[in-house]
UniProtKB/TrEMBL annotation:
This protein's record includes keyword Metal-binding: yes
GO CC, any one term: cytosol
Official protein name in the record: Thiamine pyrophosphate enzyme N-terminal TPP-binding domain-containing protein
Signal peptide interval: none
InterPro entries registered for this protein in UniProt: PDC/IPDC-like, THDP-binding, Thiamin_PyroP_enz_TPP-bd_dom
Family annotation (SUPFAM superfamilies): Thiamin diphosphate-binding fold (THDP-binding)
UniProt GO BP: aromatic amino acid family catabolic process to alcohol via Ehrlich pathway
Length: 84
C-alpha cells in the first residue's frame, strides 16, 4: 500500500471530526492540498477574498457546528489580528 500524504491524512481527520467545509485563500503553498480536497470530494472548499474573511466565515461555522478549518498560504496579511 502506498504511503498516504499529509494532505490526505488531514482530510481523513477532518471528515472524522465532522468538517463539511474548509474556508480559505488559494495560494502557492496550499494549492496541492486544495487539489486533494477537490479530488476527494468529501469536504467543500469555500474560497474567500482574503484571510480575514476566511477567519470570520470559519468562526461563524464553528459557532454553529463546534469546529471549523481555515487554510491559507503564508505571507503578507496571513491571519492578521483576528481574535474570538
Amino acid at each position: 500500500m502506498p504511503a498516504q500524504s499529509i494532505g490526505n491524512t488531514l482530510i481523513d481527520i477532518f471528515v472524522e471530526a465532522g468538517i463539511k467545509r474548509i474556508y480559505g485563500v488559494p495560494g502557492d503553498y496550499n494549492l496541492r492540498f486544495l487539489e486533494l480536497l477537490e479530488s476527494d470530494g468529501r469536504i467543500e472548499f469555500i474560497g474567500t477574498c482574503n484571510e480575514l474573511n476566511a477567519c470570520y466565515a470559519a468562526d461563524g461555522d464553528a459557532r454553529i457546528s463546534g469546529f471549523a478549518v481555515v487554510t491559507v498560504t503564508y505571507g503578507v496579511g496571513d491571519l492578521g489580528p483576528v481574535r474570538s
